[in-house]
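Continuing the series of single-chain predictions for the mutant panel. This is the parent chain; the variants come on the following pages.
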Amino acid sequence: MKNSKPSPNPNLNPNPNPSSKLVVVEVAVAILRYAEQFLLAQRALHQHQGGKLEFVGGKIEQGESGKAALRREVQEEIGLHLQSDQLVCIGKIHHDYGDKAVCLHIYEVHLNEGQYQSLRHRRTGAENQRLYWLTLPQILANAERLPAANLRILSWLKLPPLIYISRALGEFASADDFVHYYVDNLTNQAYFYLRACVSVDASIALLAAIRCRRDDIVLIVPYSLYQACKHQAMAVDGLLVKLTADELAYFYQNPWLLDKHLPIFVGVHDEVELIKANALARSHQVLAAWISPVQATLSHPDAAALGWQGFAKLSCQCDVPSVALGGLSVDDWHTAKAHGAIAVAAIRGLLKMTDENC
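Parent structure:
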């Protein structure tokens, strides 16, 4: 299926929102976690967004780095000393509350056993704020109790370590074999990208068949397929969308034509595309940037590989979580994580095919 320039949606506001005149407050935020538990605090009633649950953090002072600010704030708020190498930046979130504009610098922090034991029975912090250990399902169930700026964090936390990408339909004996292969082999609640490799009608049929058989699979579709489903009045709830480089460039120039609530992934191959991805993430729900190709691939043999150093260079400048893509397998997960990735995506490296599947 060929990529084409997206058609403007007449239901969207044709004019972009005016930029805020508020001074942006830079804030460092820690996703403090131990295994599958996360530490949250309750804001004092007199504070902005008072009474809300939040991830621990605070304002970055002038001349202070994000990491330094976060270590200071965590020490002041809950008496916990963090090492710099425990703080892994996963992105930035820009949010305008109307009366206050913020830029949140989000760091994921995996606590060690000693740190967890020192906090596990604490019910209040150093500033008498209530503390809560919650699992991700519990946080999601209480999402309305978090400040609006924190909600993007929840989408990031739901991202899995592996993202499966479909093979070409021609690699299977039939469309039914394609559907059976993924329905039978994808893990529970897998993120699966049904990439553009056949006609729109054929893609819609594959999408419908998979959704019918496995409603737990989180399906990612090309923007063109998403638009086609809407045009045919098909249910699109729960679908995530992947933008091509051309679509990213188009919406970078015309952001008001893209639904700001649509959860999207963007492909990034160089610094020019990275700038566009970061700009779009300021106003839209960009879940992650797929940075590629890390290594040479069968699907794009002529594309120059970034290598892990090239990937890390782009990843550290990215305002959203980074996904490593291109010639990778499940065995590359730890290497990818060490270079700044939150996930690995692959066409062939995550599921093996046998002669029975062909």
